[in-house]
Protein 1
Amino acid sequence: MLKRTVTINLYRSCRGVTNKIGHLVLLRQVWSAVSLSREASGRLLVDPAPGQEAAAVQDADSGVMRLRAGDPFTGETVVLWLGVHSLAFTLVCEPHENLLLAEGTLRNLSQHCLESLHMLGPGSEVLLKSSRIDVLLSRLLPHGQLLFLNHRFTQSLEKDVASFLLK
Amino acid sequence: MYSHGSESLINQAREIQEPELQKFYSRLVKLLQVKELSHETLDSLQRLQLILFANKFTKILPAELQQKLLSLLSSPAEQLQVLGSAVLRETLPPSGQELNFSEENLSQLNTHAAALLLSQARSRADLSNLCAQLIRSLESRPSEGPTQSLMFTLPVLNTVFTLSPECLTEDHVTLLSKKLVDWLRYASIVQGGGASSGGFFAGPRSRQPLPIAELDGSVSGDFFTVLCVGQGFTEDQWMNVYAFSMLRHWLLTHHSVSNTAVDAGKAPQRHGPSIWKSSKDTGLDSDFSRAQKKADSELQKACLVEAVCILDCVCAEDASMVYRAFPCMKALFGRLSSDLSFARVLLPIAQFYLNHGEMDTVDCERVWKLVFGQFPAELFNDAFLAYELLRFLRLNLENIQSRAPEFVQFFPNFLKFLAWDSPAVVEDFVDLLPSLVTTGTAVELLHTLLDLPCLAATLVLQLRSTCLPIADPNSRGLLSLEAFRNPAFRGLFLFLLRAQAGSGDTIDRLSTLHELLAEAADWPRVVRCAQTVPVLLHVYFNTVVKVKTCRSMTYWLRLLAFTARLLFSRWTTESSWVFSCHLRRLCKLHPSLVVDQSHELLEFAGATANVYNKEEVYTHVVWVLGEYLSVSSDSRCSVKLITSCFEALEAVLFEITSSTPPPGTICPAPRVITTLMSALAKLASRSHDLIPRASLFLSKLRTVSRNGSVAWCADEEDLVAIVTRGEELWSLLKAPGVAQSVLTPPAYVTTPRWHRDTSVAMPLQLRALTSLTHSQ
């Protein structure tokens, strides 16, 4: 069962201007959406091991949620979520954005977060290595811009990120 | 995984004391004075960010530290830029220390510094300034600075005009439009750096630039598009990707700019044809079957969606484009419509048909059939499609109502999304449901809403029966699944799964269906669905009152008797509350309905069993009868009708107050008893012949309960309350004139104008009445 949701602050520049309370509201909504979906699907979760990030993302359940204006963002927003075991990744989008692209971007980002922060293993790297997330976002979702990246472009960015992470 | 270690780290960060924090700040300042980048510096910066993030209130850092952090933004090490920007975004800038980039140091503006600038921009002037500088940097091509400085420019600009489209001047819009067209149309079609893999021994020949390829490996045509691949990419190819990614938002925002004083809207229109050509090439002409990677095939779908949406935007701006775009769209629809895996691409195409496809009625028919018919029926369990389809309906409601009014008939289909995943789409249905209530659909819609939990269970069975082979051990033991597969019950399930309305409001064998599905009552999906039913009933009744169709009104009054048909008894409380609440509102609006429907209502109110198992609705029906069965509500109300109603209610009241409750039930609620007594008194006050009978009953009640305990009321306090009410009513009936004016007040009393008519005001009457009863 879902123990805790980690909402990775997928920094979408100033578009989703929100305060920390707003973040909590969002976190709660996502948490309940993921729990309900898990309960309904009745799937059993197997604890994943480090190194199985790609498979974990493939198996992850996902969904979409509509947040009305003012709850908690000023305009209406769409929230995509991806539940990977006891973690949930969310991406807040504007209603006009391309959700197919957003879905792919969220999967890609989630997999990179899991890998580069070793989130499937024990430890608390996610808190003290958050700059890695910033770097990932600056390449794959720069200033919140969803990008149409084919596998060659993605590889090229990944190389760039990898060289940063090696330092 | 998120561990206890993380939790204690967060707690430490939250509980850090001020002196300790100050010490930490000064240590960090010292660390930052050292030129080289140490592990300790990075770690401390990370900790500082965590402290700032974990605390509720935004902190202001010491000026010296702030200054040092600002200087990190132009550090050559990206790690320091990232951390500097991340920390500063969590703080408030002290006045006078804003980040500033002018012509001279613009080359130092990197993506991380820009993120900080955006998060701390305080005025439109700040943003305009940033915009002007960024656009100037775009102009000074070829770029002198590092490649990256140009790459982040478009996303930053896109963010700026999301926040405030007015930041761009007319010249900016024109210039940027031109630039976008350049990147989209004229990006180089040879591979970028790293293309020659010949290495040391390679001759000059192999260093010839290679042409870029399509995803399937074939050499691509005249255009570079986001679906082109190569060993490496040139800067303008990267900009092509960025430009295509922001193009639609640019068109949408430009549209709103043109409505303002800045009449800058012409530029993209002039370039319309080439934008159209670019987007056409990006998506529409690619071959889907040969895509190498799954991610790329997803990307192709996303590109198709984008290209169709962009064409839609362009056609909305320039109607002359429609005749060029339409054949292309028609061909695409023809190619994709048979493949449900392209459903999410077909939705934007449907949008295009809705906006620009008036002339092609034959194709439109096919589009609507697909979107309203096949998609919900076969893809009800796709959360994303559900969201997008319901959004399509929501946003285009007026247009759909006029272009495809038959969509209303598909409500049983749309409700499948709700039955399958109620929490995710209930908001959409709160918005959509009112438009589905029409004179023709009202009755069937009500039935369908009440049967929604059954539909949820049936959808689960439908999926299971296709997933699990009949011999599968998991499917054995599920009685409902066997029933679902049993041809004898096929008709029942097919009725629930119908795509369109009109094959009858409901079915006769509902109770059979309920028995078959009994084990589904606690399936999570069914429980969630049942929880949303009352919410939707509420929306439904609010709408149906406005739709002036008496047939449905009288019909659903009759339905009251069937509230028990709700499959899952534990949720009936909420639903019957909604029923009762709307019954009251409806009768208040149309009091003559009570006379119209008196036969059904009396039948319901005269059945003693309803007191025990439909208490909520029963109480309200009795109240409605007492309140509105009078000549003042409807002139057709005869003495005979009042008398027969009095007799029916009297019989029930007599029965429940003279015997113990039937086995298996608890005592009737005191509220039912007092409501019955009040209704009797009200009816008696309208037909004075009945007063002695009412008085006799009320006085008997007092005598019976004098002993202090009765079989029909377990609580002593309740009994006292009941008896007191009885005595009050009894006293009131002793003065029939007063009783009538209090129990059946004329209309003007219930619409208070007390400040104007002091002499006939209700408070005055009550005071007079109090003194009367006290003196006796």
Note: Confidence is low (pLDDT under 50) at residues 1-18 of chain A.
Protein 2
Amino acid sequence: MKHLLSAIIAVLWLSLPAQAAVEVQTVETPGGINAWLVEEHSIPFTALEIRFRGGTALDRPGKRGETNLMMATLEEGAGELDAQGFAEARDALAASFKFDAYMDSVTISARFLTENREEAMALLRSALMEPRFDQEAVDRVRGQVQSILRSSETDPGDIASKMFYKQAFGDHPYGSDDNGTAESVAGLTRDDMFLAKDRVMTRDRLYVGAVGDISAEELATLLDDLLGDLPESGPELPERVEPALSGGVTVVPFDTPQSVVMFGQKGITRDDPDFIPAYIANEVLGGHGESRLMDEVREKRGLTYGIGSYLVPFDHSELVMGQFSSGNAVVAEAIDVVKDEWAKFAETGLTAGELEMVKTYLTGAYALRFDGNGPIARILVGMQMDGLSPDYITTRNDQIEAVTLDQINAVIQRLYDPENLSFVVVGSPEGLVTN
Amino acid sequence: MKYGLAALVALAFPVISPAHAAEVSHYTLDNGMEVVVLEDHRAPVVAHTVWYKIGAADEPAGKSGIAHFLEHLMFKGTDDLSSGELSETVTRNGGSDNAFTSWDYTAYYQRIAADRLPLMMEMEADRMRDLQMTEDDVKTERQVILEERNQRIDNDPGALFREQTRAAQYLNHPYGIPIIGWRQEMEQLSRDDAFNFYHRYYAPNNAILVVAGDVDPEEVLGLAKTYYGPVSPSPDLAPRLRPQEPPQLAERRMTMSDPRVAQPSISRTYLAPERDPGDQEKAAALQILAELLGGNSTTSYLARNLTFTDPKAIYVGAYYDGTSIDDATFGLIMVPSPDVSMEDAEAALDATLAQFLKDGVDLEEFERLKTQLRASRIYAEDNIEGLARQYGQELAIGLSLDDIESWPDVLQEVTPDDVMAAAHEVFDRRHAVTGWLMPTTSEGAEG
């Protein structure tokens, strides 16, 4: 507790819509780790969310899948404990640790009781600082990854996704499955695991959110103990890549009754001043249950069970993309409807009525996201990675309210590009060929 | 057993302070509608949920899928609401809404700012008795549920095979019929079918209102009286008596090959008792049995013996959910290692089960599980909507509030002997369906 007094803590009271108060404290630990905290003492546990920017895009050439395999093997033995010993220790504490790998980040989601917080964090620390990566564990988890890779070869959704990203991003890390290939995963070694961990889990790319039964001082001490000894810095991040999507339809023949469709075009960066107007625009086009795409493709025509579109701002590129599934006999019609809607949207934009409705939806629904310690901890980390300040929680709805119809329609004109909207179709679609 | 590693772990099991369960209030309106309120004032949000005690297992013969189809059509409009207006209104008010159908219940819910609760009740009460739909609505929505079936079942050989094995598991009970329906029957479902089902079963005396979140129970009761109180009950609700299983005397074995299967797998389900009002002990023992056998991919008995010691499997698991009105199932799943044949894999699974029946419960594992179950009550408090769903489901299958609230204690009181007695009873191959799902290639079909 010697550093207790030097922890730097700033407190901000933030009111959510309808007066929910979320008190975000920014904590700088004596060891120099920054974290956001919401104290919530009514239930005796804490949710801790830790992320490192970089993710599987940092896989080295020829080593695709190394970050994914490493994250999946972190919990398979650490310090004195082998895989089973570690799981027994974790379960005896009723703690849970989840390790995940994504294109631009790796994440650790921990949940632990107040009454054994120190033991739980000591155990998590051993996984982060002293993972064993025993050959037996690496081989066993490798077998699981290879099983997933085999299954994805005959899963129409996975086939579509792989083809779509390959077309968009080619040889850039975004262009390939971050589980790796059968060949690359077979070649990964124990040493690769240690190296991958030191590459992706570094102090300079660390983001932390905590919510629950813990004080700022306790969190500061916890974080210095848990993360203070990680390497200072990681390798260079990948370069930017422009999505190479130039329109057309690619059909991947696959014998199954319903075709799976992914579609997309170039998007908008998260730090673009027009990101919020673009976000609102997409919400109307395909962002929720009452969107134009849902209305036209599902409600009016019954061509699909569900369709959505999303803004996908990667760290080094950006897309607007969407997906749906339709029976082979009607998928061509569904694609035509999507194309028409995209073109209509680009040409005429939103109506004032749509804007008003989507604003009341987005501003009202924002509070629904803050439903539990874990979800709030994830929001806190996401905001930090997006470069937002804690007061975004209170200003976000005002920012949405302030957007005018002209602003939205200007960004729609700039962003939506029906000529370059590209489709990948996996199935046996009738009347549809690659063009 | 090779449990020497356990010695490395300090066996200090946490005490875990007893969780103060969410405040629960319960009322019954004059028209028979039950009202349950769960308070959580941490966020100004409410979940408004209505549970009808009617599901896919209550469908007339030949009309499979009608309960689920009606759930879709419930969004089409009423005498006061145009088609789609309910969801649009929820959206306009910053909420989200959805619905789901099970064999035993059908539920509708909205999540929204707590001050919009009266509006939600007004609309939900309206569609309880005044649903309207056109032939066009029905025709288009039927295409939607057929695409839903495509997406959930027909495009996924694993789901198709589960549908087949489940149909074989139940010789007589409608739990063997898929919730979404058999395709050829779904294609024929009509507006009349939907209305017949609706008029018979959608009524306040067949419904439970569960409201969870930032609300005052007395206010919720007042609102419920205002909005749901005037809805007239259905006079002739029959008790939910479904055709029951005859004695199952013959083991069933099924194989399916599909070119879309890349990873062969073995499944086994055994008919198993469910939770009953005032009688949940056996179900609790089965739930703990499932956890000990295959609830954890590292430390469970099956995982230790089949994926660590002399590995025969990439993955192995066990599951059981006794929250149903009639007979449940106890399931096992195994994904064999690439060099292990289906026959050898199944033989290893059965040998491991037999060994478990001899070895009995590992007491350290048992204590760890009890600890986790106690902690899960603390973690559950953080998810008020999860609690609302749990209460809704359990009330809808006929459990009492007392049954629901005592369930964690019933689980804690299970002894190792109870677990082994349940295991000896449930693992009867005459009651079981074993399935091999394989690729359509020579290498996968070798078993």
Note: The longest strand of chain A covers residues 318-327.
